[in-house]
Amino acid sequence: MPPYEELDPLLVDHLEHNMGEEDLIAAGHRPEVVRRIVRLVARSEYKRRQAAPTLKVFSRAFGFGWRMPLARG
């Protein structure tokens, strides 16, 4: 895992700003880190669906409001 100084902005861009791999790389994040983090977030999607309801602390809903696309358009 990269240091938090690198990881946090990447996660904000990916989760809150809905940036995909290409957009994250174009924004200046390291490609190998982007691929790994995006893969890890996608693989852990099922955990969010199993979690109990929680308070919303981000500007974007992370439970039922955040969905991984079934296919890229």
Q: What is the level 1 CATH name?
A: Mainly Alpha
CATH topological fold name: Arc Repressor Mutant, subunit A
Count the strands? 0
Strand content: under 5%
In the predicted model, the low-confidence regions spanning at least 5 consecutive residues are none
Describe the largest sheet: none
Order of helices and strands: HHHH
Summing up helix and strand content along with how strands pair, one would put the structural category as mainly alpha
- What fraction, in percent, of the residue positions are helical? 40-55%
The average pLDDT value, as a whole number, equals 82
Number of helices: 4
Report Rg: 13 Å
Give the oligomeric state.
single chain
- The geometry reads as globular
- CATH architecture annotation name: Orthogonal Bundle
User: What's the domain count?
Assistant: 1
CA(first)-CA(last) distance: 29 Å
